[in-house]
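To illustrate the input format used throughout this study, we show a single complete record. The first block contains the structure-token representation of the backbone; no residue identities are included at this stage. The design step must infer an amino acid for every position from geometry alone.
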């Protein structure tokens, strides 16, 4: 009886964990939209949302209601199945990729030994949604936006993947929890064990490629309103447009969470011992540490968007193919050489 009940109980807790984490991610999206609007207003010396609810807190809810009741128009001549599939292929991969991110000690939806490979594979499917949406809309501006998105994501995904491989070579594992534990070290200098300092070039390449992968300024050429009206989502309205919109923010959260995991020590702190048998308090503390790092990275995403102008498209492609890919390969070669010769990126500190 107990043997039969254990798998069922494990399944129940796994399902509960998945529901809680997915619900938390979905609640972060409207909060992030509100935070971005307030921060953008502060940067541009405006007021921002302040009418709907206390200090405008209900503005995201008002936007959802507006989009839900907006007339759902479908242009003539579109491929209806692919037209409807596009938004789902942008939103679903972004949230599925989050399933392998450890948001705390022993707290992730799915624990795979090949978590990084799964995340990059699933995340790569979003390019199909952008391409399908642009092609199926029967609009030349949408088609150009879809083509731009495809070329941009493929270009920067190569550099991003090579930077991730450098981390996997350093950690000698593809398990995300093991990568976090590999970055932990006691003592004052433990912070330098983070891959941000062990692999600074890989961290820089990953960060910039993450902006390009999520179509955020200064890399939002696929939806550049000055040239393409709105790009791949020009012909979308209502909840279909909302899925594109939400997919971008969920992708931001997932990329930021992966950056925290692979370069910023994840849910660990150098000065806080990792217990072998974590209690509920330990798990809650680890989640708080992870969320604090995640919020700082999301703030950086928003700050960059409202500070830097966008690149020209030829500049964007030149940076991807002629700068980042060669730098990624150079970093990969140096990582392999240092591993063979037993070198370290950092000079050992006396303490």
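Output of the design step:
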């Amino acid at each position: 009886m107990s043997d039969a009940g254990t798998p069922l109980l494990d399944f129940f807790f796994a399902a509960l964990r998945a529901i809680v984490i997915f619900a938390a991610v979905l609640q972060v999206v409207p909060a992030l939209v509100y935070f971005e609007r307030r921060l953008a207003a502060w940067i541009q010396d405006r007021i921002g949302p302040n009418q709907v609810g206390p200090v405008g807190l209900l503005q995201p809810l008002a936007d959802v209601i507006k989009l839900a009741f907006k007339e759902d128009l479908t242009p003539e001549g579109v491929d209806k199945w692919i037209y409807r599939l596009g938004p789902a292929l942008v939103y679903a991969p972004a949230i599925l990729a989050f399933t392998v991110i450890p948001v705390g000690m022993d707290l992730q939806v799915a624990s795979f030994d090949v978590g990084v490979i799964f995340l990059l594979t699933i995340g790569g499917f979003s390019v199909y949604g952008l391409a399908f949406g642009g092609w199926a809309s029967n609009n030349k501006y949408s088609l150009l936006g879809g083509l731009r998105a495809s070329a941009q994501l493929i270009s920067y995904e190569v550099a991003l993947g090579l930077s991730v491989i450098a981390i996997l070579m350093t950690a000698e594992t593809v398990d995300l929890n093991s990568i976090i534990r590999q970055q932990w070290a006691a003592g004052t200098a433990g912070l330098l064990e983070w891959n941000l300092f062990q692999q600074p070039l890989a961290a820089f390449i990953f960060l910039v490629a993450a902006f390009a992968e999520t179509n955020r300024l200064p890399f939002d050429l696929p939806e550049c309103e000055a040239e393409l009206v709105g790009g791949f989502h020009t012909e979308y309205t209502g909840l279909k447009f909302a899925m594109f919109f939400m997919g971008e923010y969920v992708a931001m959260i997932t990329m930021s969470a992966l950056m925290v995991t692979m370069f910023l020590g994840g849910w660990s702190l150098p000065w806080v011992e990792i217990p072998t048998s974590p209690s509920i308090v330990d798990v809650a503390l680890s989640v708080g540490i992870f969320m604090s790092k995640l919020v700082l990275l999301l703030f950086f995403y928003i700050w960059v968007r409202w500070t830097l102008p966008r690149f020209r498209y030829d500049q964007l492609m030149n940076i991807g193919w002629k700068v980042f890919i060669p730098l990624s390969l150079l970093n990969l070669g140096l990582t392999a050489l240092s591993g063979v010769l037993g070198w370290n990126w950092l000079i050992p500190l006396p303490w």
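Structural context for interpreting the output: Residues 77-341 form one domain. Residues 2-43 form the longest helix (42 residues).
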